[in-house]
């Protein structure tokens, strides 16, 4: 835990405790040693880097509340203070816009749409190990970013659906997505192939897709991407446990737009269809076990992508949450 006089642990009513550890951890400034500027916050992060790393490992997510992070530029400096290498957003499905430095908008899909639980970029071979979110403008209502511990979901699913999980571990998953050329901001998976692969050259797109282990089939409207089979359950060596590392529920219940049928967006690695009742019950388990803390302006949420799935609830605008992905 962050110690000395730089950060203090706080409690929020939405927090839960797993194996004696609060989830998420919540840190605030120490009133006896206030942090007034973004530079002071950067210095505090760097001074407490080792203890913060220990905290993120034990808890899986850390919410920083009450610190002087007011703008996208402040958030960029905050992310930089941790010293993690940036991960380019190549292969992801969500429409995003670069704001400043290594800061992007979070998923820009319409406010009435929910974004189901997922590990960030779990459908591609190269995914971030850490995610940062920053609330620049809190919503009038709703708009939480619920989080849930991945190993806890694996254990729940293994206990309730052992045969399903055994098949999932044996065969993995295949993800299929149909993309237009340009971005479609009306869709939660509306990123076109130009921005997905950061090029308008089909040969370059194919090369970048292959690097991710992805195949592209070109269509008159755009492209069809096929990813997999890839593991749906991974082993987190740093914590010595299995994790529910996939986008199964997100794809099956949320990859829906004019181009995509979500029930065909994800399959077992052997090509067989997923049982709808099990997938929908997995969604119920995720909702039952999650923590959803309402955003406050200035909040910074650090998530270990190896430990935690996240989602987004629908909201009443305005809401502006920014993101940054790290290797």
From TrEMBL:
Gene3D superfamilies, sorted: Clavaminate synthase-like
GO molecular function, one term: oxidoreductase activity
Domain of life: Eukaryota
Pfam family, one: TauD
Tagged with keyword Membrane: no
All residue ranges annotated as the TauD/TfdA-like domain in the record: 38-322
Keyword field contains Cytoplasm: no
Alphabetical keyword list: Oxidoreductase
Name used for this protein in its record: Clavaminate synthase-like protein
UniProt lineage: Eukaryota, Viridiplantae, Streptophyta, Embryophyta, Tracheophyta
């Amino acid at each position: 835990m962050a110690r000395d006089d730089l950060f203090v642990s706080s409690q929020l009513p939405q927090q839960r405790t797993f194996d004696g550890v609060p989830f998420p951890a919540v840190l605030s400034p120490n009133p006896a040693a206030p942090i007034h500027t973004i530079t002071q916050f950067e210095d505090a992060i760097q001074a407490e880097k080792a203890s913060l790393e220990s905290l993120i490992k034990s808890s899986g997510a850390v919410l920083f509340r009450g610190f002087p992070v007011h703008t996208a530029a402040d958030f960029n400096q905050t992310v930089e203070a941790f010293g993690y290498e940036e991960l380019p957003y190549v292969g992801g499905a969500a429409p995003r816009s670069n704001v400043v430095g290594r800061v992007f908008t979070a998923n820009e899909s319409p406010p009435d749409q929910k974004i189901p639980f997922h590990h960030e970029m779990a459908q591609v071979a190269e995914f971030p190990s850490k995610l940062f979110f920053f609330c620049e403008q809190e919503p009038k209502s709703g708009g939480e970013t619920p989080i849930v511990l991945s190993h806890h979901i694996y254990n729940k699913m293994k206990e309730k659906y052992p045969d399903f999980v055994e098949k999932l571990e044996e065969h993995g998953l295949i993800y299929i997505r149909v993309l237009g050329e340009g971005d479609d901001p009306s869709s939660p998976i509306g990123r076109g192939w130009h921005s997905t692969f950061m090029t308008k050259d089909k040969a370059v797109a194919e090369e970048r897709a292959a690097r991710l282990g992805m195949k592209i089939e070109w269509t008159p409207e755009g492209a069809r991407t096929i990813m997999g089979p890839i593991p749906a359950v991974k082993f987190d060596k740093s914590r010595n446990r299995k994790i529910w590392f996939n986008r199964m529920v997100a794809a099956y219940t949320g990859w829906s737009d004019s181009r995509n049928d979500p029930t065909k967006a994800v399959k077992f690695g052997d090509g067989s269809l997923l049982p709808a009742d099990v997938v929908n019950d997995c969604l119920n388990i995720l909702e039952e076990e999650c923590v959803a803390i309402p955003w406050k302006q200035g909040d910074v949420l650090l998530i270990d992508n190896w430990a935690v799935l996240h989602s987004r609830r629908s909201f009443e605008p305005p809401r502006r949450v920014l993101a940054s992905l790290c290797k």
